[in-house]
Design a protein that fits this description.
This protein has 339 residues and is an alpha/beta fold. It is 42% helix and 18% strand. It has a five-stranded mixed beta sheet, sandwiched between helices. Strands 8-7-6-9-10 form a five-stranded mixed beta sheet, sandwiched between helices. Helix 1 packs parallel to helix 2. 49% of the residues are buried. It holds the Pfam family BcrAD_BadFG. It comes from Tessaracoccus rhinocerotis. InterPro entries: ATPase_BadF, ATPase_NBD, Euk-type_GlcNAc_Kinase. This is ATPase BadF/BadG/BcrA/BcrD type domain-containing protein.
């Protein structure tokens, strides 16, 4: 991977996720030369400084893995939630990279568009992302022309990791408080929060289980979106009625979001991304059952993340024709770098 390339023939493609950040160093032929990893880099899920630091760490990790010259990077393409205009944040990244020898311009695209481009080389179709947040896009001409949801944890993101995680915590509190049904989610959440030592204790002032207070304190002490970490608990108790209800509601909500993107659109692949839809735990299958023949014959096309798509978008910005052959090379070489 240390082969010296002509000057200015590399791009850094960044997938800035709420859980982790991944960066691929890719040449103009579509070969991934190096891969870097770091922690949360979604500026909506952590503060700008930490997000920028994660992006820089993962980018430099990709350069180091390849043994490449940072001066050969021609573009840094960041795929992040919203893909909006955040000049101060972008300048923070650009300045930090520049101090380390990467003087290429930094551009941003929506993570949903990057996810779509991870699933197909075609320039038209649809994508539904359900990770920490949730959003759907209709893509035409290689650009998102219609977005649905993606409104953040306070106003939307129906069926997202946050949405599911919040309902897990609510269900457990209802169980403990006697206002909801008993659920197998309760011991799982108690364990995940490290509160097992309080299982049999009650508050002397109000008679409530101490767990009610401590779960509240733990939840409120962090950024709200961090509740997404508890979403996976619903898959650990597949026979639990409360967990099944949460998953059914999540699938129904995601179906509404995707239908709005599909409405009056031309046929095309439907790519899905994000931890809730790409695992083997069944939410994707639930969604396919809800949508039925509204989907194309191939069903939903899952992708691991938006890393390949970020590279596709970076190469296209620089005039590279990412056809089926280049896309296949890129997909396979990124997988090889992941190990």
């Amino acid at each position: 991977m240390g082969e010296r390339l002509p000057e200015g023939t590399l791009v850094l493609a960044v997938d800035a996720g709420g859980t982790s950040c991944r960066t691929a160093l890719v040449d103009f032929g579509g070969t991934c030369r190096g891969l870097g990893l770091a922690g949360s880099a979604n500026p909506l899920a952590t503060d700008d400084g930490d997000a920028a630091a994660a992006i820089v760490t993962s980018a430099l990790g990709a350069v180091d893995m390849a043994g490449a010259d940072p001066a050969d990077v021609r573009l840094v393409l960041l795929a992040a939630a919203g893909g909006g205009h955040r000049p101060a944040f972008m300048q923070m990244i650009s300045t930090s990279l520049g101090l380390r020898g990467v003087h290429a311009p930094v551009a941003m695209e929506a993570d949903g568009l990057a996810a779509f481009c991870s699933g197909t080389h075609l320039g038209h179709g649809y994508v539904l992302v359900a990770g920490t947040g949730a959003v759907a896009h209709r893509v035409e001409g290689g650009r998102s022309i219609r977005s649905v949801d993606g409104l953040g944890w306070l106003l939307g993101d129906i069926g997202s990791g946050f949405w599911v995680g919040q309902r897990v915590v609510r269900a457990v509190l209802a169980d403990l408080d006697g206002t909801g049904p008993s659920t197998g989610l309760t011991p799982l959440l108690v364990s995940a929060m490290g509160l097992q030592h309080l299982v049999d204790e009650r508050d002397a002032l109000n008679g409530r289980p101490r767990l009610v207070h401590e779960i509240g304190i733990t939840s409120y002490s962090e950024l709200p979106v961090r509740l997404a970490r508890y979403a996976s608990l619903v898959f650990a108790v597949p026979e639990d009625e409360v967990a099944r209800e949460i998953l059914d509601e999540a699938a129904a909500g995601l179906a509404v979001t995707l239908r709005a993107a599909l409405a009056d659109g031309a046929p095309g692949p439907v790519v899905v991304a994000g931890g809730l839809l790409t695992g083997a735990h069944g939410l994707r299958q639930r969604l396919e059952r809800v949508l039925g023949d509204e989907l194309p014959p191939e069903g939903l096309v899952p992708v691991v993340d938006g890393l390949v798509g970020s590279a596709v978008l970076a190469l296209r910005r620089l005039g590279v024709d990412v056809d089926a052959a280049v896309f296949e090379r890129l997909t396979h070489s990124v997988a090889a770098c992941r190990g």
